[in-house]
Amino acid sequence: MELRYYIIRRFLILIPTLFGLVLLTFILLRAIPTSDLIASFISQKATAQERVIEKQQAIAYLGLNQPLPVQFLYYLNDIIHGNLGVMYTSFYTGPVMGGIERFLPYTLELSIATVILSILIAIPLGTYIGARPNSPSDAIGRIFSLGVYAMPIFWLALLAQIIFGKNIGIFGSYGLPISGEGYPTTTKVPWIVNNVSEPTHMLFVDALLHGNLTIAYSAFIHLILPVGVLTLSILAGLLRFIRAGMVDTANQEFVKTARAKGVPEKLVLRRHVRKNALLPSVTVIGLLMAGLLGGVVVIEYVFQLRGMGRLTLATITGLNIQFYGVAGTVLFFGIILMITNLIVDVVYAFLDPRIRY
Amino acid sequence: MQSTISIFKRSGVQKKRRPKVEDFQATMKLVLKNKVSLTGLIITSVYFILALMDYVYPQYLGAGPGVVTSMLRFNGGFLGQGFPSGPTLAKGWWYYLGTTYANIPLFPAILSALYIDLGYSLMIVLSGAVIGILIGTFSAYYGGFWDELMMRITDIFYSIPFLIMAIAFTTILSYSLAKAHAPINGFSLIAIALIIIWWPTYARLTRSITLSVKSSRFIEAAIASGSSKVRNVFTHVIPNVLSPVFVQISLDLGSIVLIFATVEYLGLGSVIKVTQYTPELGELISAGQTYLPVGIWWPVFVPGIFLLIFTVGVNILGDGMRDVLDPKMRR
Fold this sequence. Notes:
The complex is a heterodimer of chains A (357) and B (331). In chain A, a hairpin with a 2-residue loop joins strand 3 and strand 4. By secondary structure, chain A is an all-alpha fold. In chain A, strands 1-2 form a two-stranded antiparallel sheet. A two-stranded antiparallel ribbon of chain A has the order 3-4. Chain A is 72% helix and 3% strand. In chain B, 73% of the residues lie in helices and 0% in strands. Chain B has helices spanning 2-12, 19-33, 35-56, 64-75, 106-142, 144-158, 162-179, 186-214, 217-224, 229-265, 281-288, 298-325. In chain B, helix 1 runs antiparallel to helix 2 and helix 3 crosses helix 5 (106-142). The chains are: A mainly alpha (357), B mainly alpha (331).
């Protein structure tokens, strides 16, 4: 099959899944009592008369006087137009889509740094360990993977805070950036307005863009601990996978041929084994992304960072649950993961023509 | 795998044949030959025994839910009376690991937390496995539309990060159940939410095995002798599916304990009003975290270590069992 057709088929599979995801969030929204759903549309300060009007507006908007399938169409229409509803929390108030726009960049900064760091560490380390199966270094790698895999990530983050934040004090106390939560509110910098830095909303990148090295340095220092913990948690799975791939490939016939014809051992490892062993690792990235997006929520909570994870948790904190916030974030994370998996599949099909059938 | 076969052969010579029991004994023998898996088994059993002991004899070991509640009242409630103290030998063995917030001794609190953690995690994994096996085998055996529908549903569940889904389901469930005044506690609620999102793993696993079993000769023979579809699934397909599922359960138990603790740490399911305070490991860590800035680290460190050792033990045991029961999966 040509790559073109494979990509088209892969896209077509995406559609029912996407539809199902929207259906799932719709079911979540309808699982709560309808009166509470309507109440979330009524403003606190409204008078009795206004309340009646707002209630009727909400019923009309949700299509509650119509059968469930039609209500779903109303919801679908909203989603297609990018309207995920509104949320009111102390963390963020406004449309959910706007919240995602505002808090996603920080999470992206965190995830991108984590992915880059973990790949930089995992590939050389994995090939080193995979080239020496059942050696002491392999045993150490195995114990490390098992230990980190078995560790609750929030506990790891807390330990990192205790050790590095408090006692050594290199990375700022408890990972809190310069002042306030996440952004330097007291620092008078023209490109930081209302706690949001311009233009990319990523503090480190923005500081570099504006040439403010002091803030860039501070932002970098405060990224180290969260990124380090996330990287550790991802590294365990990645190392295991690369090692397994190396061991599998090393037993194949073409490696024996290469050795038999006298290719130096270093070259065999680099050109024949590693290249083929790293190929399947592309598929793990989809799985890792799922773990990363879950881990980001916990890490942002522990380090009190302002990103998507905190936005997700803000929607459910306390008794004041923001239903549209919950549904919107679930939908958003689902779509991100779906797109990642799509890209991974297409890239893998491009790299390895054997799987397009 | 030469040794497995030889053990099976040897056991076949005995007078009274009980194949299922002999199979189990043979696998356990192989698992226990490996020292690492033996360690895993010992760790896991010690944890389960501790958890059960705390339930059976709350007055001797551990605190039990009621005892902790009375201690809270005695000490003047949460975060009321001063700081937790470090490990002391003078006050008796309850205090060997120090105290956590409200001066509750940490050791008995952890013991009763183990009962909650292990019990609910086991319940989640087992119920998820039962639901997953039923849905997976039946949909794969009947094939066609049902199979396709099941695959699409699992696709949806796989397309959302697990923790996010756990957060969403727990919240919505707890809210609607609290509104309906359902007699349910926060732990069972989280357990229900986690079961809802955990079964697809088992459904996918059993589906792939069922598809390969379906075309084998003994199923053909069963059909030829007039056995119905439902009977085929229960008597021929499910027994073949069980051993990989068993391996998966032992591997999953560790991650479910971690997820359960994480969800509790994040403070979910708190809409349900708690009448009786029951400690849970994630919750203990979350409570001890308050004192981190003052330099008090043991309320955070000690429960985490308990969690870590358990997950390591379960994972080692699961790896060992996988090597014996399912050599194809070994890497």
